[in-house]
């Protein structure tokens, strides 16, 4: 087994790796796949000032001070650089994890900002609502992260301030570079093009106003193109496990699904004659459907057990850490839980071999 407690789950979590980064971490080949209300007129003056002020900063320290001075600037900056509070929550969750491990010095500048943001709750906010509620309390830490990201300094800053020697840490940093620094770079480039042109700055402010309106209608909770189950399938096959993924919905397939309680992600050795079935649940963000998913799997586990079929879950991602009660409920059940952590997946292969009596 790999996960026996919620603490094990946090330790073995890969947080927010995309399939391509996860494949690199697991050293497997994986083909790239295609992924993934406010009134504009009322905000026109605000956006012009917002963009003008940001275009005048010359370094991350100046930008940090500017953002700290105006919480509304922080709100808009989040949407125009990293696109969502959920994404910021993933980063805060990761910092909370490293800080609690002792990998971030308590009395360092970063440690002090983390303590300030934690406040009485003794933990960093991880969900959109909590971050918004604590925005004023956490503005120094969040402004630092956004400013460093904007000037492509975040990864180097974290490297200097987080003393994590695990083999996973460089992959986490590579994901931060791609999902935070690279996305922030877009706004920096746009501002450099219109910095001294008021007419172009007006066009950009209108454009960003439209984008903000669209983003505020809601962000997608999960990325449909994230094929984590394919990553697991390739890993298992590479390690000698016969398995398959079947997603078709023919009448014959539907009949088979009914016999298996639900449509699962991976079948070992085959869907027509499964001995082990695996459900892959990699959640980057939280959703109300997570509780329903846990209840459905627990119900189906009992049905499959009566048919002598073993149910296994591979549950991973920051979205499950934020949904503590749901994750704990599954971990504390009879259902085996694994994550995409390299050591954990190796334990999964051993578990499968032992199940079939293989040496």
Notes on the protein architecture:
With 359 residues, the chain is an alpha/beta fold. The protein has 2 domains: 6-11 and 224-355, Rossmann fold (3-Layer(aba) Sandwich), CATH 3.40.50; 37-215, no CATH class. The protein has 18 helices and 4 strands. It has helices at residues 6-11, 19-26, 40-56, 60-68, 71-81, 85-100, 109-118, 128-133, 139-150, 154-161, 169-194, 198-215, 228-238, 251-259, 289-306, 318-322, 324-331, 342-355; strands spanning 266-269, 274-282, 310-316, 337-338. The chain has a 4-stranded mixed β-sheet, with helices on both faces. A hairpin with a 4-residue loop joins strand 1 and strand 2.
What keywords describe this structure?
6% strand, 2 domains, 4 strands, Rossmann fold, elongated, alpha/beta
Write a brief caption for the model.
With 359 residues, this protein is of the alpha/beta class. The chain has 18 helices and four strands.
State the share of residues found in helices, binned by percent.
Answer: 55-70%
The overall pLDDT average reads 88
Strand proportion, as a percent range, falls in 5-15%
What's the order of the H and E elements? HHHHHHHHHHHHHHEEHEHHEH
Biggest sheet architecture: 4 strands, mixed
Low-confidence blocks of residues: 34-38, 218-226
- From the alpha carbons, calculate the radius of gyration and give it in angstroms: 23 Å
- Morphology: elongated
The helix tally amounts to 18
Strand order, sheet with most strands:
1-2-3-4
| Class computed from helices, strands and strand pairing | alpha/beta
Q: What is the number of beta strands?
A: 4
| CA distance, first residue to last residue | 16 Å
Q: How many structural domains in the coordinates?
A: 2
